[in-house]
Amino acid sequence: MGKYALRRLLQMIPVLIIVSILIFAIIHLIPGNPAQLMAGPNATPEQLTALNQQYGLDKPLVQQYFIWIQNVLHGNLGTSFINGFPVGKLILQRIPATLELALAAAFIGLLFSVPLGIFSALKPGSILDFLTTLFSALSFAVPSFWLAILLVLLFSLHFKILPPSGRPPFTEDPVLHLKSLLMPAFTLGIAMAAKLTRYLRSAMLDVLDQDYIRTARAKGLSNSTVVIRHALRNALIPVITVFGLQVGDLLSGAIIVESIFAWPGVGRLTIQAIGWRDYSILQASVMFIVFAFLAVNLLTDLAYGLINPRIRYD
Amino acid sequence: MRSKVFLFIIIALLLTVVLAACGGSSAPEVVEKVVKETVVVEKEKVVKETVVVEKEVVKEVVKEVVVTPEPEAAPTEPQKGGVLNMSLGPDFTTFDPFFDVNNRQFKPIFFEAPIRISDEGTFEPWLAESWELVDDGLAYVLHLRKGVKFHNGREMTADDVVWSALRAMDADLGHHLSDRFQTATGAEKIDDYTVKITYSVITPSALDGIARLYIYPQEAVDTIEKMPVGTGPFMLEEWVPGDHMVAVRFPDYWQEGLPYLDKVVVKPIPDEQSKMLNLMAGSIDALMGVPLADKPLLEQADGINVISSPPGFNFYAFILNINRPPFDNPKVRQAMNYAVDRKKIIETAFHGEALPVMVPYASTSWAFAEDLNNFYTYDPEKAKALLAEAGYPDGFKTSILIRGASGPYVDMAQVYQQDLADIGVEVELLPTELPQYFPKLIHSEFDMVSHGTGEATVDPSGLFLGAACCRPFRNFFGITDNTDWFPTYKEVAEKAGTTLDQDERKELYHQALTILLEQGWTIPVAWNQSVYAFNDSVHNFRIDMDGAIWLNEAWVAK
Asked: Which residues make Cβ contacts (< 8 Å) with residue B225, sequence separation at least 6?
């Protein structure tokens, strides 16, 4: 598996190169010039030219691309048009927040979806199954921003037990930090749980019908062994795929949730950068998102091998 | 059978939830209705009765800014210490005070200028103790305060003011302050605490420029974007973009005993609903940028105060491109003016929370022309008649390029679209994101725009020679190309700027404003006021006419 992982990592390189060209081209094709935006409508043509030259925006696109790639290989992701900060620093500052939120949301998602998915599959047509289906449907239907505001109204305004926004540093106040994480993670986790529950339920229903499950029960194995060791493990493959895609989604930044809870993640940074046509930030953050997706994809594939030893890597 | 019963119960529960949600949402509506009823009564008075009533309303707003409402049993003596948590909305982009970008309202926290604009629209001494106009009105001499320190410990002297002034005059640097120093020719040091700033012509708006001339030391220029070094009551301690900005008390601030606050913490909370909830939950003490639809909600919340910056600087307007038919015909432009129902736009697009505008500068100004304040009333019949006279009895088709894809510019354009349909003008709305909007604006690629304009100057010359006129690279609307009426207007406006006799100037501005209104290419709609909210623990939270925040006397009750 080690060789397989290494091979996959090396395969990422040409993918990232092609993606970098695509991202660069698309970003620069979007109408609107960042220098114009920075200078405002009241700038003289000379001021505009000066700004364009300062940021190298007057050079041919191909040249701009190679300059950017060269800088990236030297570890320089450029400087933000918005505030002049080094882009690498800006994104690195945001990555822990995004990672933390993604992992917490994934944890909550699994916390709800695994038991609900299993039990509703074990007793299809029961009250629990009906309630689980209802829960999934509601979670799909409810927009995340509505749920987020509702949670803030309830827990911050009414009960006053959770902070409404922000992310205080863990080192300063770990309890407050965790409290701040709860609501945004729950908002995202519930949305995730809705989808995962449905997938897990249908995958489990499929598996529980199989002959080997009947055999296992006939052998006299306990219910928990049959369900968890045998059924769940086989049902997990499609679920892990969906889970991987969703975690990738979360890593690209849950923009709405980050806005409402003022959670300083990568998503919010990317949206601001789009508005400002901040090419440096956009290029770097989209590359990060792509890399994150590829990495999660790889981890998902490796996980298949862990769950199902029949899957071999050549 | 059992599952059918359960199904019924679940559906009933769902319906209850839906009804509760609908019912719940009507509660705020009831509240809004109550508020709106009282507001409508007042506003009707404003529209139907004389200008004097309107002026009173405006003055009340100005007074609101100065007086901080305090609850009865609360402490009235300022308390030293404490932290003020604020949110301004989006994050800072640069701290360079010569730029007017995100959160320019925060400049007075770190920087100060030789003079300050008072709430009555006059100038008061600040870093300069006094000043006089010399050389037949072609120069200002500023007498600086002694012992004022910068955040880096050095004393501010005339050299610093000269350096800042010369930097302000340098248009090549691309900052926004150079607009206010276009006629300035130089700055020289008379002695260590006296500076003379010279102009090529008499410049009545010179003091407006000096009021924004934030002084900072030359040695800080390379890092000023990220590290503000000024003479203001607070110094920057830490700025983590997107997360927080912390400013701490400047111990050597020149005003004895001030500031009261230990710290000011600013957190960017981009979502407006979330910002309000933070204020109501107490995790921030003050915020800038209350959505107008939510203003009544905040005003009624316990322990929250809402204030607006005084009107008089910027306003929302529709502006016509007079180089594009049919807007090259003044009758058509006048028809467009008669077609706008300001009252309806304010009630709908601005949720009843804005003030209408006609004369495009402050009613507290000495140059205010009360008789022109109702130049255009809402008169669709007159609009149709004018269109017929102009040769468009069946109306015409046009489009509105809108600043931004959502927000007040879009909302007011939608209402105007309906009003124009009533007079036979078919309008296509073009909401446009800013990065695409500005190039179109600059290259005059539009029929008309839904925009904001105005001039942030106390002296009306700023408006007449600025936004309404003459900057050549800002001739988006085709005004300066016109050969019929524009030369007359320009002559009158410039003449008003060459004399210091206030009565003569008032008369000349009256003439210039009459021409502007008759030509009607700018259709003023409502004043654009910055709205702030803060809780009862905050005192002396001051907003000036620029919408800038002054915290040097602010304090929080513990």
From this structure: A83, A84, B94, B95, B96
Phi, psi at B339, each rounded to 5° = -85, -10
Q: What's the pLDDT at B62?
A: 37
Q: What is the pTM of this model?
A: 0.77
Cβ of B435 within 8 Å of Cβ of A37? The answer is yes
Contacts of B513 (CB under 8 A, 6+ apart): B359, B369, B372, B464
Q: How far apart are CA B266 and CA B268, in angstroms?
A: 7
Closest to B241 (Cβ–Cβ): which among A47, A90, A156?
A90
Pairing of strands B286-288, B531-535: antiparallel
Inter-chain touch B267–A165, beta carbons under 8 Å: yes
What's the CA gap between B455 and B393, in Å, rounded?
36
pLDDT of residue B270: 79
| Phi then psi dihedrals of residue B266, to 5 deg | -115, 125
Residue type, B220: A
Q: Which two tokens stand for residue A190?
A: 């519930």
What residues of chain A, 136 to 165, have a C-beta less than 8 Å from chain B? 149, 152-153, 156-157, 160, 163-165
Q: How far apart are CA B170 and CA B188, in angstroms?
A: 15
Burial class (CB in 10 A: 0-12, 13-18, 19+), A8: middle
Complete edge-to-edge strand list for the sheet that includes strand B426-432: B426-432, B397-403, B448-454, B314-320, B522-527
Q: To the nearest whole angstrom, how far is the Cα of B178 from the nearest Cα of chain A?
A: 10
Q: Look up the CATH architecture of domain A95-307.
A: Orthogonal Bundle (1.10)
Record: contact A165-B283, CB cut-off 8 A? yes
Task: Give the pLDDT of residue B28.
Answer: 35
Report the residue of B265, B269, B271, B449 to disrupt the A interface, i.e. the one with the largest count of A CBs within 10 Å. B271
pLDDT at position B38 = 35
3-state secondary structure of A189: helix
> Is residue A116 a contact partner of residue A124, using CB atoms and an 8 Å limit?
no
List of chain B residues whose C-beta atoms are within 8 Å of the C-beta of residue A130: 3, 6-7, 10
**Dihedral angle sign, alpha carbons of residues B33, B39, B45, B51:** negative
Chain A / chain B CB contacts < 8 angstroms:
131
Q: What is the DSSP string of B193-249?
A: TEEEEEESS--TTHHHHHHT-----GGGGGGTTTS--SSSSEEEEEEETTTEEEEEE
Q: What is the distance between the alpha carbons of residues B107 and B126, in angstroms, rounded to a whole number?
A: 15
Mean pLDDT of B267-292: 87
Rounded distance between C-alpha atoms, residue B410 and residue B349, angstroms? 9
Q: To the nearest whole angstrom, how far is the Cα of B86 from the nearest Cα of chain A?
A: 12
Cβ-based contacts of A93 with chain B (< 8 Å): 240-243
Residues of A in contact with B243 (CB under 8 A): 93, 167, 264
Q: Which helix (H) or strand (E) holds B299?
A: helix B295-300
Test B281 with A42 for CB contact under 8 angstroms.
Answer: no
Q: Do B281 and A149 touch (CB under 8 A)?
A: no
* Alpha-carbon span A150 to B185, nearest angstrom: 58
Measure the N-to-C terminal CA separation of chain A; round to a whole number of Å.
8
Which residues in chain A have their CB less than 8 angstroms from residue B171's CB? 44, 47
Judge whether residue A60 has pLDDT over 50.
yes
Q: How far apart are CA B240 and CA B266, in angstroms?
A: 10
pLDDT of residue A150: 92
Interchain proximity B433–A165, CB inside 8 Å: no
- Chain B residue closest to A149 (CA)? B274
Domain boundaries, chain A: 95-307
The number of angstroms, rounded, from the C-alpha of A43 to the middle of its chain's C-alpha atoms is 39
Contact between chains at B474 and A41 (C-beta distance less than 8 A): yes
ipTM of the complex: 0.77
- Copy the structure tokens of residue A93: 């500052």
Partner B contacted by A282 (CB < 8 A): no
| A307 phi/psi in degrees, rounded to 5 | -75, -45
